[in-house]
Amino acid sequence: MGQPTIKDVAKLAGVSISTVSRVMNNSKPVSPEARRKVLDAINKLDFKPNELARSLVMRKSNLVGVIVKDIGIEYMAQLIRGIEEIGRVYKYDILLTSSYGEDQQVENSIDFLATKQVEGLVIITEDISTEILVKLRETRIPFVILDKYHNYKNIKTVKVDYESEEYKLINSLTKAGHENILLIAGKDQNVINESMIKGYENAVGKDKSYILRIDGMSSDEGYANAAEAIDLIKKANISAVACVNDEIAIGFMNYCVDHGIKVPDDLSVVGFGDNKIASIYRPKLTTVSIPYYDIGAISIRALIKRIKHEAEILEDDWIIDAQISKRESTKVIR
């Protein structure tokens, strides 16, 4: 015998198919007697409704589409975990797809997810074009964009305040007795670089700022530019180096190891982001821990509230606090 159908339930209960549908979807009032008969029939037949068919009729799939640049990027994986776990609390599952930074693939993903009747979209990116923003609005599917490198007019998001967090990090170094501090930042004029430079300058004062801007944000660039940084460190009697991410900090510390410079005895070093390698590398890196899981969790919760018409997605940017993880790469000098 095949799987029972809604017709079988209606026949056993002695009611119409529309009455069974109303009971299942709780869409319109049904008499207590009719409801009892339908529920009894469902139990006796072990009826399991076709969820796909129901979603097409009800326009409710309990699915959220998530488009990421690359799931291999560590922080994106943490964001996805927050989205997925909190989504499940609200009975929503996710459909995940990667764009690898290609606009055409983002468009294809949006079209694909729309055919799957997703009720909302989360875009996790490091850059997004105006054309994609237009397409997102045209779909009329509620969406949230999580982009750590850019801000978009009239689009609110969940993020950390990089300026404020860098200020707190540098301030912790000055309180530890470090009077001259070097900041190694990227040359790209994106939100992270510019905000962190402002936070650094607010903490040390522009007249005492030492900034080295380098190409790239990887550990290789941190190593390749370390010689220039060391020259500046010697000239300005600098005792601490702050890097705009953990990768640059690790590359810089590798150079120090290769050239007999001891961290933190000779030089304190801090990063930003708290990637896994920050707590594995020796000495363990002092850094700012960004709560990516929480950012994903808050984003999906806000999106689901919008889907359910309980609130706007985000009336303003939701700023979430980060924490300084003090480890072995820094020391107090007074």
Automatic annotation (TrEMBL):
The family database entries (Pfam families) matched by this protein are listed as: LacI (PF00356), Peripla_BP_3 (PF13377)
Q: Where is the HTH cro/C1-type domain?
A: 5-52
Sorted keywords for this record are: DNA-binding, Transcription, Transcription regulation
Output the SUPFAM superfamilies linked to this UniProt entry.
Answer: lambda repressor-like DNA-binding domains (SSF47413), Periplasmic binding protein-like I (SSF53822)
Does the record bear Transcription regulation in its keywords?
A: yes
Q: Which GO terms describe its molecular function?
A: DNA-binding transcription factor activity; transcription cis-regulatory region binding
Q: Residues in domain HTH lacI-type? A: 4-58
Protein name as it appears in the record: Transcriptional regulator, LacI family
